[in-house]
Amino acid sequence: MRLGSLGEWLVIIVPLACILLVILGIAGVVALPFSPGPAAIATDSIGGGNLTQESLDHPEQFHQAIGNWQYTLTAKYRYTIQAKVVAIRHYADTGFEQIVPIDFAVAYGEVISPEYFPYFSFSINDRKLQTTVTYPEYITMLPDDYWFSHTSNNHLVLPTPEIRRAAENISAGDCITARGYLVDISGFHDPSVIYSLKTSTSRFDEYPGGCEVVLVESLQKSSC
User: Fold this and answer.
1) What 3-state class would DSSP assign to 109?
2) Measured between alpha carbons, how far is 100 from 165 in angstroms, rounded to an integer?
3) In this model, does residue 63 exceed pLDDT 70?
4) Which run of H or E residues covers position 121?
5) Which 3 state secondary structure label does DSSP give 190?
6) Are the C-beta atoms of 66 and 208 separated by less than 8 Å?
7) What is the pTM of this model?
8) Which residue has the higher pLDDT, 202 or 42?
9) Rounded to a whole number, what is the largest CA-CA distance in the chain?
10) Bridge partner list, 194
11) Is beta strand 120-125 parallel, antiparallel or unpaired with respect to 212-221?
12) How far apart are CA 174 and CA 209, in angstroms?
């Protein structure tokens, strides 16, 4: 049979081309287009593994007096984290920020695996976590959104002398398990002097609102 028109040729060629693409795709020769579904999209997980953040049925309030300051801490989430402490900063503030005398910068997940951890450096400057990543050319980098969501700066509220001593016994490089609450803090010295600090409840927000403010119930060294 003689095919004398373009339309007649397309009737035969197009189906053959489709069959060929399917065969090559199965063999791994051609990468067919792929649109990620919901499971492939990064989400802000708040449970499982190294970090658990659980909503309370209703907000709980705690009160603490330090010197002439009165603080109210409002919790909406319980919080547990198992992580490596990668930087520590102590503060000798005797003013409004004495309610949070220490910051622990922590990392967990693949960030602290031997394959990747040596290429990270961490420091805390003015209550802000600074992270530097330097990979050799032959290393496949962790995605930025992954390591960003698996590192954080935790402002610690230490309500008892025992918990304070436990915190002071932690060094950078130690692995810890900390349990408590994520809290928003309001404080006052007199009606004209008011202090406010809100906690992060996401793993993807940034300074100045990206730090977790943790009322610590228990703190101990652990493995990670």
Assistant:
1) helix
2) 14
3) yes
4) strand 120-125
5) strand
6) no
7) 0.75
8) 202
9) 100
10) 188
11) unpaired
12) 26
